[in-house]
Amino acid sequence: MKRHHQLLTKISRRQLLEFVALLPATALLGASWLAEGLPAQDQRLMGGAALLLMLLTLAALASATKLMGEAGTRLEESERQLDQLLNIDELSGALSRRSFLEELDGRLERIRAAQFSGKPSSEFTLMLLDVDHFKHLNDSFGHSVGDEVLRTLVACAAEQPNWIIGRLGGDEFAMLVGSTDHRALYDDASRYAERLMKVLRTSDRTQGYQGISIGIATAPSDATSARELLHCADVALYDCKRNGRGKIAFYNQEMQRKQTDARQMARDLHAAILLNELDVYYQPIVDFGGRTVSAEALVRWNHPVGGAIAPDRFIPVAEQSELIDRLGEWVFRRVCESDANRGFGTISVNVSGAQLKRGKLVPMLRKVLRETRRSASDFALEITETVIMNATPEVLSTVRELREMGFLIALDDFGTGNSSFSLLRTLPVDIIKIDKSYTQQLKTDSISQVFVTAVGEVAKLLSYVVVAEGVETQEHAMLAKLAGAGRFQGYLYGKPIPLGRERLGRPGNDIAQAPSVRAG
C-alpha cells in the first residue's frame, strides 16, 4: 500500500510540473501569433502581457513544487503512523496481534520449508501469558492501574534478551523465544515473573497485582502451524489456571486429555445443577461430651453414567468459571430450604476462594436468606486457611462483611497454610478447624502435639472455638481433648449422610456410641 501511494505521488507531481512548465512557452507563442499585423504599440503591450503571464506561471510553478513536496512529506508521515498503529500495540508498546502472528507464521513457514526439503530446521518456543485475576484488578483498582500493569509487563519482557512480545488481546500476551531447553526456559520465565512481582508490588498503585500464569509450547516438536502451536500453549496455560494460577507449565498430550475431560465435566455439572441432580450430605460435629451440636454440609454428585464423582474432582472444574457461583448458590439454597439446623447451633457451609474473589458471594447470600426467610446466624461459612492467608484486602473486607451480616466464620484446614499465630488476632474468624493431618498424628508426632496444644491455648485467649477434624478413633478423640480441642468431627462420630438418615436429624443425640455411623 505504501509503494502504491508513493507511485501515485510521483506520477501526479511529474505530470503537474510538465504541464505548468509548458505554460510560459505557450503563452509567448500565443502572444506572438496574436500580435501579428498589430501596430507596434499594441505588439509591445501584448509582449508585456505575455511576459507577465510567464512570470506568474513561473511563480505558480515554484509554489506548486513546494506544495507537492509538503504533501508528499505529510503522506509519508501518515503512512509511518499507520504502520505504527498496525504493528505496535498503542497501550502496552508490544507488537500488535497482527504483527506478532505474522512473525510467528514466518518462523513456522521456514521450519516447514526446511522439513520439506529434508534440511535441518530451526526451533523456537511460544509462551502465552495471562495476568491472574486481571478483571478483578480492573474492577477493584480502576482501568488505569490495569493499564500500568500491562505496560510494566511489556517493559520487563523487553529486558529479556531475544524475547519478542506481542499483545493478543486484553491481558493475554505471547512471546517468542529462541531457546527450547525446558530448564533454561523455566528459569528465565521464573525470573521474569519474580521481577514483575517485585516491580509491581513495590508500587502503591499496583499492589493489587497477584501474578501471572505462563503456558509454553515449542516448535516444531509440539506443532508446526500457528493455530496448533497457539492451541498447545493455551492448553498449558489452562493447566496453570486449573492448578491455582501463578504457575508455569509446558504442554504435553496428557494436558489435552485432562482439558477435554474437564470441559465435559463442566457441561455435565452445569446440567446437574439445572436438573437438581446434586445432593447435600451432612457430617455431625460434636461437643466435648459427644453430643451433636452442629453439622457440616457437603455437596455430593452421583453422575447418571459415571457414578459418584468426588468433590475434589468437580469443584476445581467449577472454580474455573461462573459455575462455582451457581454451585455455591445451589448448595446454600438447598441447606436453607432444609430443616438440617433445626435445634442445632449452626450448619457449616464451605465457601470457595474463587467465590470470594469474584465479588458475587455477598449479594447471592443476601438474596437466598431473604427468599428462604432464614437468618445468617444459623450458619457458619468455612474458608480454608490458605485462602484467608493469601487474601487481598478486598477479600478480607468481604469476609468481614459476611461476619457483620451474622455469619460465623470458620478457618478450615488450619495448619496446612503455615500461617503465623500472631495473625489470628486480626483475622475475622470465630472457629478454627485443625486439619486432620495433625489430629491423626497426635500419638506419634511431637510437632503435631505442640501445634494442636498451642492452637488450643491461643483459641482460649481469643475466645475461638477449636474443632479437631479427622477424628476416626477413640484415641484420636482423647488426645485431641487433652490438646485443647472443644469440638470434634470425623468418622468416629459419623460419616457424611443425607438429611434424615440414621440419627443426624435428631439434635442433641449422643451419637458417639452409634456403631452404625462409625468408620468401617
From TrEMBL:
Keyword flag Transport: no
Keyword annotations for this protein, in alphabetical order, are: Membrane, Transmembrane, Transmembrane helix
Q: Where are the transmembrane segments?
A: 47-65
The chain positions of domain GGDEF read 122-253
- Residues forming the EAL domain are 262-510
Metal-binding found in the keyword field:
no
PANTHER family in UniProt: CYCLIC DI-GMP PHOSPHODIESTERASE PDED-RELATED, CYCLIC DI-GMP PHOSPHODIESTERASE PDEF
NCBIfam families linked = GGDEF (TIGR00254)
Q: Tell me the protein's name.
A: Diguanylate cyclase (GGDEF)-like protein
Q: What is the lineage of its organism?
A: Bacteria, Pseudomonadati, Pseudomonadota, Alphaproteobacteria, Hyphomicrobiales
